[in-house]
Amino acid sequence: MTALPDPKDVLPHRDPFLFIDEVLELVPGESARARWTLRPDTPFLAGHFPGEPIMPGVIIVEALAQTGALAALSTDDGKGKLALFAGVDKCRFKRPVRPGDTLEFETRVTRVRGPIGEAEAVAKVGDQVACQATLKFAIVDRDQLEGS
Question: Which of 55, 57, 111, 139 is the most buried (most CB within 10 A)?
Fold first, then answer.
């Protein structure tokens, strides 16, 4: 069995904008499952919302995209590349995510055509769906963005 990667070895994201604590499963180029816990001291909670903190939905979608990027970039062809967000469809939020909740993210690449791909994604807290969406992404060379 191959060891699971540290997300920082695959993704360019770093704190405070890395939303994966642990990779749980990975099938390179196909699927990934990861986990992240929303800590009470997470910076965005101070303003979303004071006295009633919940994780912004767009951050949940970003975390799903990061999980999808793990799957897409964990191939030999993914080295030296970035996965850029190209769109989101059919996004639904089913429950709020509160401090102390641990999210589990699952993504499955469903289509790739050239550098453009699509993935089905779901975020859960326990067995409850918090968010589900279809994500679109573009794979580009990292050096394409340098100096942009």
Answer: 55
